[in-house]
Amino acid sequence: MLLLTILQYIIDAAATILGGVLLLRFWMQAVRVRPPSTVAQFTFTLTDWLVKPLRRVLPGVGGYDWASLLGAFLVVVLASSLLFVVGYDIQMVLLHALLRFLNWIIYGFMALLIIQAVFSWINPNAPLAPFVNALGEPLLRPVRKVIPPLGGLDLSVLVVLVLLQIAQLVLSRVFIAP
Predict the structure, then answer these.
(1) Per-residue confidence (pLDDT) for residue 177, from 0 to 100
(2) How many CB atoms within 10 Å of residue 32?
(3) pTM of the model
(4) How far is CA 176 from the centre of its chain?
(5) Packed helices 90-122 and 129-146: angle between N→C axes, nearest 10 degrees
(6) pLDDT under 70: residue ranges of the chain
(7) How far apart are CA 103 and CA 113, in angstroms?
């Protein structure tokens, strides 16, 4: 049983990294952000092997890289399939995978906003700061329209983080019915 737990941990870690990079690839194209060359090289090198074949099945429509999003979902399904080996039925595995996929998206947005806040405090002129700001702006813009900066302090990051946590609570209640 310990070996199975260790194997699940290793698979989860690898899947989370790959899935996160696939989601980043999708988000970069969705918000039309050109990444710095190092980020682009890392992202495309790590994900092209999966995204390029998926594009034959699911081409980009409406300017979105649906193959990257599908790839991230397939990664989480494969990572969750170890639960099937342990004895869960396929429906439970797919529900678990969908919950994990949505959690990856929420955690990714949270990490993005935290990194953006750290850049703004420590080094707003860092080379990656404009890239991170451009990725986070679509999340913050609607909140900034409602809550403008107060005395030079932008509370939109805090508000969006709280809203993301609420979304995560709602998801956990929907997927894990009492």
Answers:
(1) 61
(2) 9
(3) 0.93
(4) 21
(5) 100
(6) 83-84, 86-87, 177-178
(7) 15
